[in-house]
Amino acid sequence: MSTTEARQLWHDFAKQRVLVVGDVMLDRYFWGSVTRLSPEAPVPIVAKQRTTALPGGAGNVAVNLAALGADVILVSVAGEGADGAELHSALKERGVSPAHVLLTAGRRTTVKTRIVAHGQQLLRVDDEQIDPLDSELTEALLQRIDTAPPSIGAVILSDYAKGVLTPTLIARVIARARAAGVPVLVDPKGMDYARYSGAYVLTPNRSEAFSAAGLAQDDSATVADAGARLMDRLDIGALLITEGEAGMTLFERGRPSVHFAAAARAVFDVTGAGDTVVAAMGLALSAGGSLQTAAYLANLAGGLAVEQVGTATVTSAMVECILAEHK
Question: Residues with catalytic annotation?
C-alpha cells in the first residue's frame, strides 16, 4: 500500500454511492463562556452565545460521506415534531437527502445536547428512546432499502443502540448485500457481535472490542488479543479496532494484523470520530480499494476529525491536503 495508491483511490470517491442504515440523532450544541461559579452549587455558569445543531449518529456518517464526495442514501427513523424537522433540515443543509428518514409519531428523535465553553465540553444531556423498532417500522425501512438504486458500492450499518438496527433488520440487510456482492461495514454497539454475522468489516473502538471479546480493560490483555479472539469467534472478513492516540489496528482473515500510527496532530474532541472512520473506509472499499488502503485512508480521516471541536465533518479537500503531507 502506498500514498500514491491512496491518492488515486481518493479521486474515485465522487463516483461512489453508499447506503447508510442506522440510528440517526440530532447533536445540539450550546456554545458560551464561563466567568464565574454558581452561588447555588459548585458548578460553572455558562453564558450562552450561540446554538448549533448537526446530524449525529448514522446522520453524521452520511454527512461525512457527502462531504467526501459520495452519493448517500440514508435510511432511518426519527420522531415527528420540531426535533425531527430540525434533523431533516440539518441533513439537507449538508447535502444528504432525508427522504428515507421516516418521521413517526410513535418515537422520539434522539437529541444529544452538549454545553461547550472555551472549547471544552462541560456537560451532555441526552433525550432518547431506545426500544427496538416494531415489525411495521422494520418492514417500512426494508422497503426503502429494497428500492435503493442497484449501483450501491457499500453498505454501512451505524449502530448506536437506539433501536433502529433490530436483529431482523441487520440480518436481512447483510444477507441482501452479500447476495449482491456488496461489502457491509458495521460500527458496532454492545457485546454481542454475533448479530453482525456475515458483515465484511467491523470498526469498534478499543473499549468496545475488549468488552465484546470478554477481556478486562487493563494491562493484562492487548488489542492483538482482542482482535484475535473476535476474528476467531465471528463470521466477518476483517476488524478495524480504533485506539485513540495509539492509532488503529486492522485484522484481516488469513493475514498478519497491520497497525496504523495515529494521524492526528492534536486531539481536541473525539465526538463523531468513529463515524468519520467508518465513512472513509466504506467509501474506499466502494471505490475498489484494498482493506489496507481503506484503513490507511480511514486513519487519516479519523485524525482530521479529532482535531476539530464538536461533531466533526471531514471534507475531501482536507484529506487531499493531508495526503500531500504524507508523500
Answer: 275
